[in-house]
Amino acid sequence: MLFFQVYLICICISIVGELINYKLLYSTSKYNSLKKNIIVAKKKLELEEADSSSNVTKQKRKIAQVKAQLELYAKESSTIQLRALLISSVLQFFFMYIIGSVYENRVIAKLPFTPMYFFQGFTHRGLEGEDFTQCSALFVFILNSMSAKPIIDNLFGFSLPKVSTGRPEWVTNPEGFVNKFLSK
């Protein structure tokens, strides 16, 4: 029962962290304009690549300009994502400290196996004794961070659209590259 209590607290912490990220980053006009610019530039690139009526050199120049614009937007989006990661990390460490101090020396769960040596520091942290099948609250918090937090992040859907970073097509879209190669 204590396991579910700690896990629900961790889920609430993840939601609070995402709401704080929303308030500090995702609700700003800079973020919203960047998101809109990326979407417009991607559509413009698709239209330019599909257009075959104009001059080839002129079309290549336009495509290069749009790609350069997308690379600039990619740099801006990486700084925003870095800020979000920094805020999330600070909040996670803060809440990890709080959970560790509230549930110190309390067994939260019992594993049906003895974990490998290098995992015992996570699973048994803050607990006394030599029974390494006992789990601490910090282990549950780490499990939540790896399992539930990415799901919560996707549910809120604050991420920017994906921007190609100038990588070759065979890296970014291998199936399309192979199909294009085989159709020639």
The stretches of 5 or more residues where confidence is low (pLDDT under 50) are none
Strand content: under 5%
Q: State the major sheet.
A: 2 strands, antiparallel
| Rg | 24 Å
Number of discrete helical segments: 7
Mean pLDDT, to the nearest integer, reads: 84
Instruction: Tell me the strand order in the biggest sheet.
Output: 1-2
| DSSP E strands, number | 2
Main location: endoplasmic reticulum
Coiled coil: 31-76
Protein name: Calcium load-activated calcium channel
Membrane topology: Multi-pass membrane protein
Structure characterization notes:
The chain is mostly helical and 184 residues long. Helix content is 72%, strand content 2%. It is built from seven helices and two strands. It has helices spanning 2-26, 29-50, 56-102, 120-123, 137-156, 169-172, 174-183; strands at 109-110, 134-135. Strands 1-2 form a two-stranded antiparallel ribbon. Helix 1 (2-26) packs across helix 3 (56-102), helix 2 packs antiparallel against helix 3 and helix 3 packs antiparallel against helix 5 (137-156). The protein starts with a helix and ends with a helix. The mean pLDDT is 84.
Topology:
Layout: H1 2-26, H2 29-50, H3 56-102, E1 109-110, H4 120-123, E2 134-135, H5 137-156, H6 169-172, H7 174-183
Antiparallel strand pairs: 1-2
Helix pairs in contact: 1-3, 1-5, 2-3, 3-5
Quickly describe the structure:
The chain has helices at residues 2-26, 29-50, 56-102, 120-123, 137-156, 169-172, 174-183, and strands spanning 109-110, 134-135. It is an all-alpha fold and 184 residues long.
